Amino acid sequence: MKRRYRTTKNNRLIVQRGKEQIDPDGTFVIEDDNKLVYVINEPKVFREQYDLPQRIDLTGTWSLNENHDIVFTLKKTKEQYAAEELYLKAELLDTRGDALIFSLGTTEKSGKQIIRLLQLRGKWQADRHNRLCFLVQKSGSTHDTFTFEGTWE
Questions:
Q1: What does the DSSP assignment read for 131-147?
Q2: 102 and 116 in contact (C-beta within 8 Å)?
Q3: 3-class SS of residue 86
Q4: What is d(CA 35, CA 45) in angstroms, rounded to the nearest whole number?
Q5: Measuring CA to CA, which residue among 52, 58, 82, 81 is closest to residue 70?
Q6: 72 near 62, Cβ under 8 Å?
């Protein structure tokens, strides 16, 4: 059954099936192949009640918005609808030759705050307008591009 997804201001995933909205405790992780996954930290009874897996693998494209939030735009699959955007309010902490490192704060239902590091792997290059770009490597030869404005040396 297809589900709709959105994120809260506290970087939690809301799962919608029909009119039912489910707010499971969980954490976003980025796997080595730059796949976005939401790992649900709820007991098995909760997951069975709402027919939720232990982890939700999301398929889509990466970008940054004007506020430098990470935007993950979902692609249509048998489990998710297309064009929905998940906004992760993260802070860019570090850049490396092959990665961007972000900190992502999440608040659980209990009020406990968790900060996780997310790493997107890829490579740097300049585009035809001499703007600095980071190409997020995806499976195969495809990539998503983050373009940074401003001056650089």
A1: -EEEEEE-STT-EEEEE
A2: no
A3: strand
A4: 27
A5: 58
A6: yes
Residue 140 in this model has a pLDDT that exceeds 90:
no
Task: Tell me how far apart the alpha carbons of residues 61 and 83 are, in angstroms, rounded to a whole number.
Answer: 10
pLDDT at 98: 94
Give 86's contacts (C-beta < 8 A, 6+ positions apart).
5, 6, 7, 13, 36, 58, 60, 71, 72, 73, 74
- The residue ranking higher by pLDDT, 151 or 4, is 4
Place of tokens 């401003």: 150
Average pLDDT, the chain: 90
DSSP string, 18-83: TTEEE---EEEEE-TT--EEEEE-S-HHHHHHTT--SEEEE-EEEEE-TT--EEEEEPP-SSB-SS
**The whole model's pTM is what?**
0.90
CA distance 51 to 59: 20
Q: What b/e readout covers 9-48, taking b as 16+ CB neighbours within 10 angstroms?
A: eebbbebeeeeeebebbbbbbbeeebebebebebeeeeee
